Amino acid sequence: MPELPEVENMKMLLSKHCNIKINDIKIKNRSLRSPINSSFEDDIKSSEILEIKRLGKYLIFLLSNKKCIVMHAGMSGKFIATLTQDIAKHDHIIFYLANNVIIKYNDPRRFGIALSFNNETEALDSKLFKNIATDALDIKFNTDYLFQKIKHLKSPIKTTLLNQNIVSGIGNIYASEILYYAKIDPQKSCNLLTFNNISDIVKFTKEVLLNSIKLGGSTLKDYALPNGDTGYFQNNFAVYNKNDQKCNNCNHTINKIIMAGRATYFCPNEQK
DNA sequence: AAACGCGCCTGCGGGC
DNA sequence: TGCCCGCAGGCGCGTT
Predict the structure, then answer these.
(1) Are A57 and A7 in contact (CB under 8 A)?
(2) Global model pTM greater than 0.70
(3) What b/e readout covers A211-224, taking b as 16+ CB neighbours within 10 angstroms?
(4) Residues 6+ away with beta carbon under 8 Å from A250
(5) Which active-site residues of A does the annotation give?
(6) Which residues from the 14-73 window of protein chain A have CB within 7 angstroms of nucleic acid chain B?
(7) Residues 6-35 of A with CB under 7 A from strand C
(8) What is the pLDDT of residues A152-198, one digit of tens each?
(9) What gap in Å lies between CA A53 and CA A11, rounded to an integer?
């Protein structure tokens, strides 16, 4: 999916449509990862979005009627803001704003989430967020936090960074990228990492994610920004999708391996 | 507890 | 040309 930088870009662009009445809402297909709840349309209709928050890869919409919408874009979800009425294949949710803007949620694989709650507290107390850890860009995600959280784990650091119960927002692209800059082998067990290793991981997590946000995120097959633009971060990948190419820092070839079923890229010469 | 594998879906590209 | 296979930004559940 969209990982943290892509979701942050969605948030920024959708936030331009706050404080505008939502005249109508239509759902073409309720069967996302879990079905869209039956009161979703009624909870939103005639209300306005006051504020959009992001926690990890989740978007939290606070509405003027106190209701709260939670959305997650799964692997292939995206938002499209448009003035044209056309409905494309996989446009599952359509918001009709009073200023004639139409916002569509499109998600071919339907791994996304869209649920409404009576208020923000109810949303944050729900099962969705029960085990979601602090956000990777939150000041509370620091070296002491991560060291305490993972020093006893025997799992490899790469799969651990993908665990949203440890830190939220990092996905499969950025896990490889972060560990490349931190010069750590993705297969290394967490309990073998030094405090300095973990300090580097935290530092480069912030750096890589913030840099990608600035560049509009990464655009692979499915992802596009709500205004139709594509991000540029994929041009800055150090290792992701670059197997058999040369490492930027040395002449060694970038390796691709599978960890916990997910493609993982690293330079075996730089990352120990 | 913690670590792994599988399934949920659709679309695309490569190999035959 | 067309079919089949593997793979894709994620995550929850079941099993060991």
Answers:
(1) yes
(2) yes
(3) ebbebbbbbeebbb
(4) A267, A269, A270
(5) 2-3, 57, 262
(6) 31, 33
(7) 6, 33
(8) 999 999 999 999 999 999 999 999 999 999 999 999 999 999 999 99
(9) 7
